[in-house]
Specification:
The structure is a homodimer.
Chain A: E1 2-6, H1 15-27, E2 32-37, H2 39-45, H3 51-54, E3 57-61, H4 72-78, H5 83-92, E4 98-101, H6 105-116, E5 126-132, E6 137-141, H7 151-168, E7 175-179, H8 190-200, E8 205-210, H9 214-217, E9 222-224, H10 227-254, H11 257-275, E10 283-287, E11 292-296, H12 302-317, H13 320-329
Parallel strand pairs in A: 1-2, 1-4, 2-3, 4-11, 6-9, 7-8, 7-9
Antiparallel strand pairs in A: 5-6, 5-10, 10-11
Protein name (chains A, B): Phosphate acyltransferase
Family (chains A, B): Belongs to the PlsX family.
Enzyme class (chains A, B): transferase
């Protein structure tokens, strides 16, 4: 399977995307990666890669790329030779089975829609992130494909999230909730309450509102919100993790007792940290476009890119796009 | 100083409010608390309190109270003898220096505006919560007085937050940021970007956008968002804390090594937990109304009510309301 990787996307490009692609190819013998980006910068990074892996890494040269400051839709239209655009073009032209980028989220979403098109019945795609908790893995959707949205967009996120969890994550009758500022029906704004009424009348297993506190404990299989809220929430969780670990380090530096404790607890703490390290773990599928597009965290290092490539490969193998298209077409609501 | 306490507000009323009032009076000899609520239920809870404290607890009997399901504005107008309404009336009538409630947030806000009135120059009050981090204490405002708001409301939250941090928390030239889904100016929705332009032109120390991850690490002194976002964020943090501690307990139960480590680390972990246990720590002042109104967490136990009474007392001693009124009147923008 050939996947296209936007080698210029993300804060640590092109080094980390290259290293991530090498890692993925090392462990997945069926994988080939097209590294789309500036050949002059990419080739030296691949100089010492073993021939077995190197033969499966294809540099697709372009000097243009999209920065984090670029306006998403404008750059996607104007920068026709940008690394992201070319990676998406490869998916459209069936040269690549899917693509991965750690770059500008807005551009990835705009590009996904512009180049690949939307799945019939979906007005706006959504980014869904799996949240691991004690009891289950929940899908939080949308975490940044939109900023604000209409009730119909929230409803479509609910539908796609439900399809994803049922068909791709194997959860029978996934429970779906809207994220709100309280459990009672009087909570939420007009958009959220209108979506609630549509979802109540649908055939989805809609359970009403959940609150912020219910997200990390995994109260439902799917949690729906607009992209502003999902983004802020996810990054808050990230910052909180960093904050807690920073405080821990500080405490451990200051006193002796926790140092002893730490030696015994380190493996467990590491595991916890990984568990709450949402985005860095891998990639987020852009649900609702006609192709496999995986958004990796902007700060992705090699491990995260490696994981994002695995997520893309899995999504392709599971026929993710086709499944969503078929299920949306069935109505499902 | 006499403070009015809505003894029927919150999930654990009237037991925990009563116990909290007792605790506060035990340690603060100048404090008197008017316990507003059903005398038949309150009196037995006070039966064994020492006479020194009991003499400073005054039961103000009423059988009516506002539930979590009640519509805020309707219940505030109709339930004129509700415990919350009477507590606010006592503040208005200067019988009480301030009031505390762990009840229905919407009703507390609506009641604050209806009974006490808004400070001139403030269209809608905001709830500000201190967020403790490694480097500083930031004020997150609003965490639930509003759901959505207009740019002018966000600007007024920024102003009140800045006044609060400068005059009441002793931070010179507090830095103020808007919470957004990215740092670049192209991020945010129309409301947030309009507020950004107004704040840029103001005399506040406005530093632009911060992201979710910047909140727990304390990047700025004041973080401004609408009440939906602040509520979801705060509760997400709460749930995450519970989730992490739940996972830790599970790991510790399952294996032996972490048990040993835990013995050494427990004091530190406790401290961390308390640090991120935002709302339960105490109360949140409703900024922008003509009186001291402190909202305590709905799940408040005695300790939290005790702390909320302390926050109210401190706010009164610091002339919180007068300070905000005077500073807003000066323009300050």
């Amino acid at each position: 399977m050939l996947l296209a990787l936007d080698a210029m996307g993300g804060d640590r490009a092109p080094q980390e995307p290259c290293r991530g692609a090498v890692r993925a190819c090392e462990s997945l013998p069926d994988l080939e990666v097209a590294l789309v980006g500036d050949g002059k910068r990419l080739e030296p990074l691949l100089a010492e890669v073993s021939s077995n892996v190197r033969s499966r890494l294809h540099v697709v040269h372009t000097e243009e790329y999209i920065t984090m400051e670029d306006s998403p839709s404008v750059s996607m239209r104007r920068k026709r030779n940008s690394s992201l655009r070319l990676a998406l073009d490869m998916v459209r032209g069936k040269e690549a089975a899917g693509c991965v980028s750690a770059g500008n989220t807005g551009a990835i979403v705009a590009g996904g829609v512009l180049v690949l098109g939307r799945i019939a019945g979906i007005d706006r795609p959504g980014l869904g992130v799996p949240i691991l908790s004690l009891s289950r893995t929940s899908l939080l959707i949308d975490v940044g494909a939109t900023v604000r949205c209409k009730p119909v967009n929230l409803v479509q996120f609910a539908l796609m999230g439900s399809i994803y969890m049922r068909c791709l994550a194997g959860v029978p009758e996934p429970s779906v909730a809207l994220l709100s500022n309280g459990e009672e029906d009087i909570k939420g704004d007009d958009v959220i309450s209108e979506a609630r009424e549509i979802l109540k009348a649908s055939s989805l297993n809609f359970v009403g509102y959940v609150e912020g506190k219910d997200v990390p404990v995994g109260k439902t299989d799917v949690v729906v919100c607009d992209g502003y809220t999902g983004n802020v929430l996810l990054k808050f969780g990230e910052g909180l993790g960093e904050g807690v670990f920073g405080l821990m380090k500080e405490e451990i530096r200051r006193s002796f007792l926790p140092k002893i404790g730490l030696a015994f607890m380190w493996p467990m703490l590491r595991q916890l940290h990984t568990r709450f390290d949402y985005e860095k773990q891998g990639g987020t599928p852009l649900l609702g476009v006609e192709g496999t597009v995986i958004k990796a965290h902007g700060r992705s290092k090699a491990r995260a890119i490696d994981n994002a490539l695995r997520v893309a490969r899995q999504f392709v193998l599971q026929r993710g796009v086709e499944t969503i298209r078929e299920e949306v077409a069935k109505g499902g609501m």
